[in-house]
Amino acid sequence: MEALQNFFEWLGGYVWGLPLLILLGGTAIYLTLRLAFLQVTMLPMALKQAFSPPKAHHHDHEGDISHFSALMTALSATIGTGNIAGVATAIVSGGPGAVFWMWITAFFGMATKYGEAVLAVKYRVTNEKGEMSGGPMYYIERGLNMKWMAVLFAVFGVLASFGIGSSVQANSVAQAIQTSFDINPWITGVALTILTGIVVLGGIQSISKASSYIVPFMAIVYVAGGLAIICLHFDKVGPAISLICRSAFGLDAMVGATIGMAVRYGVARGVFSNESGMGSAPIAAAAAKTDHPSRQALVSMTGTFLDTIVVCSITGIVLVIGGLYQTSSESGAALTTHTFNDLLPGPGGWLVTFGLIFFAYSTILGWCYYGEKCASYLGGERIVPIYRIIYVVSVLLGAGVNLGLVWAASDVFNGLMAVPNLIALLLMSNVIVAETKDFIMKRRSGELP
């Protein structure tokens, strides 16, 4: 296991090297400029669209689920261990400055998430079951006529689903429950496996319904707890934010991490958390009922804002205020749990534990949908039941696997998954811009509400 972990860490160093960071950042900045900072100018409308109840005429639009359900399915897969354990590992490895680079990644990544969703809805297809199928594999094939690159994305997507989707989540939950309740990880694995199997067998309707209940409830509870800590220690918030900004550029002598480490871990964990550029979220966006690709794309864009700018920021600021990352040998969820418990004795630790359980479980559900869509692209609908069985088993196995190995492998597959998707976004940026202009013009003329 140690040799395999070392291999994935070595490979991850290359995958997440300068070329991918440039590709991720360059694509996000390029789309931001071409879309005239749409993530700022149209964010209010996007948030209103995301949380407004569906209107009666929306039921006539093509798609399987509502805007809100599509957003919750995407958020179920993004708001997970990355928001709790991922932020902690980023700070431990890259210093407080990693939080700053997570913010930068999220801000520009909103344009990337928007672009992905535009293409996903525009090039989606109806599968053998009459359901919508879409995502990078479809827009790469249908928009660029590059079947080989679409296949590569789908293969990496399936592999990534077993890492970021099932194993990482199950492992983090098992470790958190063992720390809090001294329950054997394998027992937790069995329970998660059963609960996962019950929901995923129902497909997107079942997954989106479960996500629509779990994600809003737990996100509100977790954010409220984090804000309570920030309010109780408000005098430390300013210094904490100052430290984050200074260490992001190597201006704090007390922080051992270099600028390079802050950037690498901030970007890697930021992408792990909000998945902008990876090509996963547009798979859920493609299932939404919508009258225009850009409308659902705006809703999808809010996912990055809520995930990183809101939830990850709260975790990061609380961790920097607590300062345990400097003295403790802990990392991941355990560090976040103990920090919350120190700053909010009593409910703090429980809040993180239960937040991690619910966030991770919803992520397991969301990524099963992503993975099965990639699998069905490769082998047709007949392969979906087989994929679901393997996925559910991977939840059980992930609960007892070494955490370092799981994280290292996940980083590699996440990076490999992003490459073909980012290339497609750059090559199809004209389509994204054209669809955006069309949406704005139709709204101005009254053709669209």
TrEMBL record:
GO terms for cellular component: plasma membrane. The keyword Cytoplasm does not apply. It is a multi-pass membrane protein. The chain crosses the membrane at residues 20-47, 68-92, 98-123, 144-163, 183-201, 213-234, 240-263, 305-328, 348-369, 389-409, 415-434. GO terms for molecular function: amino acid:sodium symporter activity. Keywords: Cell inner membrane, Cell membrane, Membrane, Symport, Transmembrane, Transmembrane helix, Transport. It comes from the Bacteria. InterPro entries: Na/Ala_symport (IPR001463). Its main location: membrane. Signal peptide: none annotated. It is found in: Cell inner membrane; Cell membrane. Belongs to the alanine or glycine:cation symporter (AGCS) (TC 2.A.25) family. This is Sodium:alanine symporter family protein. It comes from Lautropia dentalis.
